[in-house]
């Protein structure tokens, strides 16, 4: 992700916070009617300062909310292109439906990876089925990895993976061709709906249980 967006959020929060403090200080200084200030003029000034303060506070709250939404998306594999092209509502929905991208341990051999893509309809269609399937198949050491993450990109290159969602078994024993991973697409079509290919997941779990 581009660091310019988080930096912009921080700069915006600081700038708006300073404006709020200035507005509050000005309101405090003008809290009393002086001999040179008529009551009506003083009231108008107070209203203007109150409006400015309210606008600044609302802007600050908006920037903080945007920064939070951005952070949640980044943790789930949202890319800069996603941030630029998706509406705020679409980002919020994708954040709600997408798991947080995890980190593989240093010794990854024997682990299973669910490789997914942010804002991927096929991925989102099977998330709800995966929890039950992982439990029912007895899969262990299962990690959700976003395709846009550094680890995700490395796995894609290593296995020449073309689709998401894909189940990956990180082999303990490399194949004859030197490949250390086995990967299988996890989404299947059932009429007009996308479902989890439980047979594919079971194949990965079988490799894991056999210690391959």
Brief account:
Helix content is 56%, strand content 13%. It is built from seven helices and six strands; from the N terminus they run H-H-H-H-E-H-E-H-E-E-E-E-H. Helix 5 (121-137) links the parallel strand 1 (112-116) and strand 2.
Give your account of this protein's structure.
With 212 residues, the protein is of the alpha+beta class. It folds into two domains: 4-75; 100-209, 3-Layer(aba) Sandwich (Glutaredoxin). Helix content is 56%, strand content 13%. It contains seven helices and six strands. Strands 2-1-3-4 form a four-stranded mixed beta sheet, sandwiched between helices. Strands 5-6 form a two-stranded antiparallel sheet. The radius of gyration is 26 Å and the shape is elongated.
Our Rg estimate from Cα atoms comes to 26 Å
Number of helices: 7
Structural class label: alpha+beta
CATH superfamily of the largest domain: Glutaredoxin
- Level of helix content? 55-70%
Count the E strands.
Answer: 6
CATH top-level class of the largest domain: Alpha Beta
Q: What is the succession of H and E elements?
A: HHHHEHEHEEEEH
- Domain tally: 2
CATH topology of the largest domain: Glutaredoxin
Ends apart, CA distance between termini: 35 Å
Largest sheet: 4 strands, mixed
The general outline is: elongated
The neighbouring-strand order within the major sheet is 2-1-3-4
């Amino acid at each position: 992700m581009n660091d310019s967006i988080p930096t912009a959020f921080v700069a915006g929060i600081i700038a708006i916070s300073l404006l709020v403090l200035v507005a509050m200080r000005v309101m405090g200084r003008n809290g009393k009617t002086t001999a040179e200030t008529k009551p009506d003029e003083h009231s108008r000034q107070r209203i203007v300062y109150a409006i400015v303060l309210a606008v600044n506070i609302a802007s600050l709250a908006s920037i903080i909310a945007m920064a939070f939404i951005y952070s949640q998306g980044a943790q789930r594999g949202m890319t800069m292109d996603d941030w630029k092209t998706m509406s705020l509502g679409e980002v919020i929905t994708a954040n709600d439906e997408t798991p947080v991208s995890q980190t593989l341990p240093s010794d990854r051999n024997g682990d299973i990876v669910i490789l997914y893509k942010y804002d991927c309809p096929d991925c989102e269609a099977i998330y709800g089925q995966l929890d039950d399937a992982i439990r029912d198949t007895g899969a262990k050491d299962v990690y959700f990895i976003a395709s846009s993450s550094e680890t995700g990109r490395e796995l894609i290159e290593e296995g020449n993976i073309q689709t998401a969602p894909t189940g990956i078994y990180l082999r303990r024993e490399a194949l004859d061709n030197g490949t250390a991973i086995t990967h299988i697409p996890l989404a299947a079509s059932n009429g007009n709906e996308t479902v989890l290919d439980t047979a594919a997941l079971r194949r990965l779990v079988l490799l894991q249980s056999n210690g391959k």
